[in-house]
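ZP: hey, is the pyridoxal-5'-phosphate complex queued? I don't see it on the tracker
AM: it wasn't, my bad. submitting now with these inputs:
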Amino acid sequence: MRRKPWVVAVVQARMGSSRLPNKVLEPILDRPMLQHVVERVRQAQTVEQVVVATTDRPADDAIETFCRTRCIDVFRGSEEDVLDRFYRASSAFHADVVVRITADCPLIDPAVLDKVVRRMLDENVDYVTNRLRYTYPDGLDVETFSFAALEKAWKEAHLPADREHVTSYIRNPERFRIAGVENATDLSPRNLRWTVDEPSDLQFVRAVYERLGGNGNRFGLPEVLALLDSEPELARINAGGIRNEGFYSSLAREEAVPPRSRSLVTSMALLARARRVIPSCTQTMSKGPTQFVHGVAPVFLSHAKGCRVWAVDGNEYIDYPLALGPVILGHGDPAVTGAVTRQMADGVSFSLPHPLEVEVAEMLTGIIPCAEMVRFGKNGSDATAGAVRAARAFTGREVLACCGYHGWQDWYIGSTTRNRGVPESCRALTLPFSYNDISSAERIFREHPGRVAAVILEPTGIVAPRDGFLEKLRELTFREGSVLIFDEMITGFRLALGGAQQYFGVTPDLACFGKAIANGYPLSAVVGRREIMSLFDEVFFSFTFGGEALSLAAARETILEMQRRNVIGHLWEQGRKLQDGFNVLARIFGVASRTDCRGYAPRTLIGFRDETGAESLLLKSLFQQECLKRGVLFAGAQNLCLAHGEADIDETLRVYRAALAILADAIRCGDAASRLEGEPVQPVFRKA
Ligand SMILES: Cc1ncc(COP(=O)(O)O)c(C=O)c1O
């Protein structure tokens, strides 16, 4: 008979903590935090033995003494090389399976711990955790791995962050078989912080213990959640901390990732040919050569898979522009490719409508709050042009108020600095207003009484709506008898499946979707209220490829996949890591006043500023150059997709760390321009 695996929980503890020294022995109710943690872990049914692993520094003598007086097994090892400490502790206590717990999590739940360990014991995997996706509160993290996996990591890992953060080397599906455990309810949107890093965290945990832990009462996740439901102000005690800040900080201590050797010969030869036959060498301004540092960036990509793209010279990059947003699952997603391939065998373009038009339209009406009817287009510009035309027909008015970018058609582009070729009579009808400034929209109504057909805007870009801005626009348009249109080209299928209107709970009359709707296949849609949409019986919105079936098949499969695989949750989570990691690193390198990562996690923007606070394309170019040299395709916006896994985010942050160090040095020396190895990137729109 096989021997039952010996499961050892190793509780990582030390007195040193930059923000809360000695925290692990801080009292909570009647006993030190570490004792609560050990007692809770001992309650787990799957754990045979609990060992506290601390450092060999004199400051941690207190932990050893504490453990010995309480009959708790203790092991001492390296402070920096925590992987080594874990390996030696696990080896000394003959672990077959190791459970990693940190001593700053006094609300750790034995039932959750058991759930993770049982999956490890039942399945043939190397590593199981409940933090692949953050469906549990921060502070309920459990990781478990085989001793064999630990030993392999111990032998192979050499980067400081991989030595300091025991499992960062193991958490890579290319090296190990890994599996996740998730909570039945995804708690990530609540951003619950139950770990103890800051004084406010300790205050929060003490408040919980005071209410639930008296007389040695046992309590776990359900009881704490119920408590927070009855006393929501408790969660506010420590809201807003950064999860995993220690990992991001440790990346800064690593040696910088060096540039890779790469060739641009084929890209440059193609560019020379393109210059002769393609004005501006691109079909899409933001993908063109002016948006990347010439001489450093590839100009042409030849293929892509998942979150990776390959340039024509063979250089590989992690992709963040993601074709300007459409790739929401990943390049070449097998489910979508399968659906499209099957459809291709049945036909692409037909002489009569195809059933997919009905099917996808029905799906969209089920997902998007304002959608009662749907018409399809190919580009986002089709959808926005169709929506404003319908709004004009509905109201019998001509003036449009807009905010954001809405595509290449006359009605919108005439209002920008790229207005050549647009008649003055058309330009005069579209009037921009400012985001989060309701008075600027009201002014348009005041100055053009009874003439405003529609207010069209991106419901959010990088900045969040403030002071009920969206609700106020809803009221204003309702009062004025004008149509409210949300341009959800970017927010749709990203903030939420139903777009920003679902996320913010404000329903427009019409909305425009595109980009991510079909994972890269060309499809857009105008959706909205039946009363207005019905006008498309008369309003001309008709083109040869409107019902092209491959893109519709792709859309159907994309929507199904997004629902099946909780894609939106993944985008939020990985995006938050990228954003937090960048901002922590920028702070550590002393450049947080010059660059930061803003926006909603599924799509963030890294901005760069000069010493006056104005946008700096020079610093952006230098940062981009250093990213490109190390294998990250960076263009400012970071779009996340399902294929961006944790290992890809870690790799990106290592590249960002190298680029930020160079940026910091250039700012200090004032020589960013001379470090550029090519032409800086240019704005798509000149400043008016
Ligand atoms: C918010 C928004 N609206 C409209 C468009 C136009 O879409 P397309 O380029 O597909 O015509 C874009 C494109 O980037 C966009 O971001």
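AM: back. The two ends are 79 Å apart (CA to CA).
ZP: great, adding it to the tracker
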